[in-house]
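Incident log entry.

Two folding requests arrived from the same account within the same minute. Monitoring flagged them as a possible duplicate submission, but the sequences differ. Recording both here for audit purposes.

Request one:
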Amino acid sequence: MKKIIITLAMVLSLSASFAFTGERAVNNRALSAFRTEFAGATNVDWTVGNDYYKVTFNMGEQKLFAFYSGSGEFMAVTRYISSFNLPINLHKSLKKTYSNYWISDLFEIANGDGTSYYVTLETADTKIVLKSTDGHWSVYQKVQKA
């Protein structure tokens, strides 16, 4: 009986320690900054990278992704958006210059330098990633599909 109690106690203590390892692995500075900046966030999920932390969470109806450096400093926050959420000049430019492409990915990134947009456009043969710079699109990456 004594062995069963000791074994059960060990299993419970190991399970409890594994249940909290995800948050403990995150830098306290990053945790504190996140809790201050995004108070009220729900469905919070941390991912630990090589030299960064990514936190996926909801603010109201929106899903956001925040990134912190290995030392816990805020780097950026991103979110997926619709083309209708782009600034008018960027939306208009996409429609005019890339009318034969479809949008497969579009997100906004905000950091200390301001707000930028990245859009992935595709045709049957080509995939292009554009980045907004000073209110204009520039080619970030271009790939020919096989």
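Request two (distinct sequence, not a duplicate):
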Amino acid sequence: MKFKSFSYYAFVDAKKSPGVVKKIRNTLSAAEQSGLEVDEQIYNTSIKGVMGCLISILICKSEVVMIRFSDLVFPVLFFIMIVMRLKGQKIIIDVPTPRIVGLKEMNTAIANVFKRGGRKLYSYASASWVMLPANLIVQYADEGRYFSFGVIHKTIKIGNGILINDDIQMTKAIWPSTELNLIAVAQLADWHGYDRLLRALAEANKIGGFSYQINLTIVGDGEAFPSLKRLALELELKNVVFTGRLTGNDLDNVFQNSHVGVSSLGLYRKGLNEASDLKTREYMSRGLSIIAAGSDPDFVRNSPFRFVISNDDGISDLLSFFKQLQHADLKKPQAICSYAKNHLSINSKLLRILSAIES
């Protein structure tokens, strides 16, 4: 590899988005393992943080600079990136969510109609021109045509990757069993669709006839936490546990007793039918099979590791999945973890990204 240094810049509230910070640090760890000198530059979303970040990018000397996209800041960054390109630096723009989807998210994220309208107008005005100086744009799902105009040739779609350590704690749960233990870990939001899962569990309890008890552990907090907990009480679900946010050994212990990880079941609420969420990759690195809605670029259709349900409000597919497991096996944790190391690791993703800008 001809590069020697790599920096990652992002505007992130570390307390509200620990998963994002973890992804950034995993990317840097993978770069370091590849022999690069790395530099982490994470700034809060205040005016002071933005100004500090812009100045830092301007004086940055790294050969490769990855910048997490922000629709508010990139019109200014456009001019700084031109200076960087003149200095011979390679610029990678990391776009975590398609901008066309970001516009839809504003409908719920910004309550004031005038502020929302102004923010959307600003985003439309910045269009795709703000990315023109970049060498490479990394997307994790398809972007709308408007925001791809003029930059589609320098855009790659790639699944998210995670850092997978050899000493990661894998599940010890064995299947078949008298209990099916599900785990859902997230910074809880409406688009995770866990309300669908709760309603499916209530219906499964009502129908009965299963050869095992279905248990669900929801790990994390967030804006959807109160409504999910309220729904579980209304449905009288005694087999659902809310732990709040867990880390370290506490999180490992919950994973070790789980059979299946629950990824996002509500992509349609963000206008998506495809995503490569980090949680799917963490589940699989621990040897868990997955329930998910929509498609993922890292999995073939009918993958034996990823069970796909309808990307809508229905619960029938979830009930079918529960019934199906009475007469089916889950893949062994070792096989699932092996797939994760070969196809979902951040090391393999970063190698592909760096290879794309070497020429």
